[in-house]
Amino acid sequence: MTAYAPPGGRSSNPVGGVAVAGRGIRADGRSEPITRARRCPLSAEITAHTRFRGAGGITSALRGAAALRRAAPALGLFAAARLTGLLVFAAAAWHRDMSPRARLATAWDADWYTRIAAHGYGRTLFWPDGAVQSDLAFFPFYPGLIRAVTTVLPVTGGTAGLLLSWTAAGAAACAIYLIGERLYGRPVGTLLVLLWALLPHAVVLTMAYTEPVMTAFAAWSLWAVLERRWLWAGSLALLAGLSRPNAVAVAAAVLVAAAVEIRRGERSWRPWAGALLAPLGWCGYVLWVGLREGDPVGGYFAVQSGWTSRFDFGVGTLRFAKRLATFPFELGFPMAALLTAVLVLLFVLFALDRPSLPLLVYTGVLVLITVGGAGYFESKPRFLLPAFPLLIPPALALTKARPRAAVAVTVALAGLSFCYGAYLLTRASMAL
What we know:
Largest sheet: 3 strands, antiparallel
Distance between the termini: 36 Å
Strand order of the largest sheet: 1-3-2
Shape: globular
Radius of gyration: 22 Å
Number of helices: 18
Order of helices and strands: EEEHHHEEHHHHHHHHHEHHHEHHH
Structural class: mainly alpha
Strand content: 5-15%
C-alpha cells in the first residue's frame, strides 16, 4: 500500500501511518522514491500513479504499456502453468480415449451455456428425486458472448466458449498482478498470479465456464476502485453481475468503497454514479427471472432452489461435512471439503492483516455465499476461484521464505494442480 512522497519527503497520505522508504513505478516504467503506509479504509488508493491522472490520452497509453511490461513475467508464468496443466490433462484424456476439447468445451455447465447461446432460455430438466433444473439459473452475459463470437467467427459454441474463457483468464491474471503490485509490490503480484494458476481446481480456468469471465471483471473493477475510477468500477461490476450469481460480491465491494469515499467528504458525482451502476447487472437479471416466473422478488431464488441450491447459513455445508466423516465418498468430495477449509482459513489470515477494504468486502461476500450455501458441495472450491485475495497471505509468506523452500512449495503445488485437474476431468464422476 503506497503513497507518493513529494520532493520534500513528506507523504501525501492524508490519513497518516508509519512510513517506510521504498520505490514506486512511474508512468514510463521507471522507479522513483515513495513512502509506504498501511491505512484504512480504502488503503492504497493514493499512490504514485494518481498524480498522472488527467494528463491526457498519451500519458494513459504510456501507463498502460508500462503496466503490461511489468505484468509480462507474471503473465508468462500464468500461461506456462496453465499450458502445462492443459497438456497433462490432454495426455490423461487421450489415455482414456476421451476428447480433450469435448471435455473442456461441453462438460457439465459448459453444455448449458452453449445451449443457451444457441437456442436461448427455456430448457428445464425434471429428475426423479424432485430436482427441477431450469437454464434460468445461468446468468446471460457469457452465453451472449458465445453467441456473438459464433456469429462473427466460423466456430462452434464450445470453441467460442473456450476462446472467451482463455482470454478472460489472461485478462484476470493481468488485473490480479496489478492489484498485488500496487498493494504489496512486484514479487507479491507475481506470486499472486502464479498461485492462482496453480490452485488444485484451476483447471476450471481452461474450461468453457464463467469463473474466468467473472474474475476478470471483478479484478479490474477492484483495481478501478483503488484507482478511484468510479465509472469504470461500477460499469465492470455491472458486467460481472451479469456473469455469475456470486458476482454480487463485486457490487458489494464497489458500494462499500463508494460509501466510504462519500462519507469522507468527496463531492464529485462519480462515486454516486459508480455505486448506482454496480448492482444493476445482478439485480436486473434476478428481477427479469422473477418477473418471468411470476414472483419478482423470489422467482430467481426459487429457480436456484430447484437445483437444490439455496442459502441456509451453512447448515447444509455442516451436514454434508458430517456425512463425509461417516460414509465413503469418491476423492473429489473430501478434496472439496479440504480445499474449502483451507480457503476459509486463508480468509481469516487475510482479514487479520487489515487488508484494503474493497478486497476484504469482495472476498468476504464470496466466502459467505460459498460456505453459507447448501447444495453442490463438490463445487465449493470452484465458487471460490474468483476469490484471488485469499492467496495474498501465502504469496507474502513465499516472498519471505528461503528460495529453495519457495521453489519446493511451488513445484509441489504445480504437481497437485496438474494431477488433480486431470483427475477431475477424466476420472471423477461428480460434476465440477
